[in-house]
Amino acid sequence: MASPTESICKILTLLKRSRDFQTKVYQNQSSGQSVSVFYIESLVDIDMMVKYLYPYLIHYPFTSLQHLADVLPLEDAHLSSAPRDVQQKLLEGYLAIQLIEQDDLVLLVKAQKKIERTLTIPEVEFSVVGPKESFIESLETNLHLVRKRIPSERLTVNLFRVGSLSQTKLAVVYVDGIADPENVQTVIQRIQTIEFDEVIDSSYIVQIICDNRHSLFPQLLDTERPDRVAAVLAEGKVAVMVDGSPHALIGPTTLVEFFSSFEDYFSNWIIASFFRLIRLFSVAFSILITPIYVATLNYHYELIPKDLLGTLITSRKEIPFPPIIEVLFLELTIELLREAGARLPTKVGQTIGIVGGIVIGTASVEAGLTSNVLLILVALAALASFTTPVYKMGNTIRLLRFPFLLFAEMWGLLGVAFCFCILMTHLLSLTSLGRPFLSPLFPPRWGDWKDAFIRLPFSEQAKRPLSLRPKQPLRFNSDKAKAKRDIENIDE
Description:
Elements: H1 4-15, E1 21-27, E2 34-40, H2 46-59, H3 65-71, E3 77-80, H4 83-92, E4 94-99, E5 102-110, H5 139-149, E6 155-162, E7 168-175, H6 181-192, H7 202-209, E8 221-223, H8 226-235, E9 238-242, E10 248-251, H9 269-299, H10 306-316, H11 323-343, H12 346-366, H13 372-385, H14 391-429, E11 431-432, E12 435-436, H15 478-482
Antiparallel strand pairs: 1-2, 2-4, 3-5, 4-5, 6-7, 7-9, 8-10, 9-10, 11-12
């Protein structure tokens, strides 16, 4: 086995092949000692080196690297003789300092250049009421935003590195004493067994550690809001945060959570429950309205009222295509407009989405390619799909209507019902970190319904969700929370 000196020298030789790897040799004026400094120029803060390091290297009479480490006014300066540690630290933005006559020991000094954007408002999960901070691409900043909201010694952070090539920093965050140890261990075990060369975003982690990699449904909830992460950690969930990603992952999660906006908790419980029900209705409408249109016109026209049937016949009398072709044409047109609007620059994309939709819709009706009734239904379905608070679930909803359309074309409403049974079978078998994805619907947990389809007042939510199996089920004393604390009986 090679000695530490030979291994460190080999690492430095390999790094020197890169033009941004720098080697500087300084002569200490007090002791005459020569000092070599190695660093990657694109990763270190040169101003900090000039201000805090060079004066000590040149003027301070140190006798050893340990002596130098003790006097440097820097947050992280430690000795190392491990080649792997030296390599990793150099690639993170550290300086490696060697004495010429003592090459088997290296002083590693943290001098990272931090380039990161400032905190901004959430763009995907925007809310009118509530905090306006969102995560950024710095793991340290994101952890700070969470710790600021949970200043507790029980908040635990486990750090890992994933990706054999990228060596991306990753944090598993949970509240000790509340989160189920089995959930925590499941997340940690799956992260430790990741076999992939490059991980650059949390979306990679979702696809690697999820329970069913072939499902359309996201099995971990991703969020850009620190307040949401803090809230679910207090419930007993586990969060995964990746350096370089402005989104955190939350698990275990359930299907109904993808249709609840975090703004619901900043509103009156009646208003929040109403809008949550509106979202659920919108999702069902978005998936089923065009399949029902195709099934009804092909097989079940007798179910249409006579007055409405006349309107449909009039709108379709010039259409040369069957309903399925008509629907697919409009659905794919809507998807094309969405994709074009998302990929173009913001101002141009908005113009394309609005003007393109109006022009193409009007032209297709006038040209006799689609009926005006179907155009209204497709537009409403597209609008309803936008009510989904989580972007990835919105993509799933957009795709689900196409299998329903296929079954509606083959077997009518019976085909729609059969496709719904297939969907429910898949959802019943789906899990998130080993926990049922349809909870609290199945298995039925009536205590968790207080924050599922509707949101009851905070005074009614004294217990954490049973599906998470928290070690501390009770959040607060419900009797005290419901009591009226008027000033005349506050001492009673």
